[in-house]
């Protein structure tokens, strides 16, 4: 293979591998995230399980921690109101757990 052909082939291989390498990082959120059912009148912060949550509009976020998602979700609901979505590094709560969270 000529040097220019080798360079082109290597570039194609690298380009093909980059999206696969980036996919796992994009799949898991870096922390907690909740979508509130009703938007807040003004941005707020609150402490849930010793972690500061930042909320604005219908979005709330907090750094990751080791607690169970359903447990944290219930505390977020008590502090900020019902949620329509809740995610952690473990993934998104399903419909049944989300109903229990809001319950």
Automatic annotation (TrEMBL):
Source species, domain of life: Bacteria
Keyword field: Signal
Protein name: Secreted protein
Organism of origin: Novosphingobium piscinae
InterPro entries documented for this protein: CC_3452-like, DUF8200
Signal peptide stretch: 1-27
Pfam families: DUF8200 (PF26624)
């Amino acid at each position: 293979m000529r040097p220019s052909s080798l360079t082109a082939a290597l570039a194609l291989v690298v380009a093909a591998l980059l999206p696969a390498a980036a996919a796992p990082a994009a799949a898991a959120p870096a922390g907690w995230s909740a979508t509130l059912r009703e938007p807040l009148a003004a941005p707020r912060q609150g402490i849930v399980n010793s972690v500061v949550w930042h909320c604005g509009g219908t979005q709330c976020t907090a750094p990751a921690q080791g607690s169970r998602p359903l447990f944290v979700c219930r505390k977020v609901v008590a502090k900020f109101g019902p949620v329509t979505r809740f995610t952690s590094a473990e993934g998104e709560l399903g419909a049944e757990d989300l109903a229990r969270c809001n319950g």
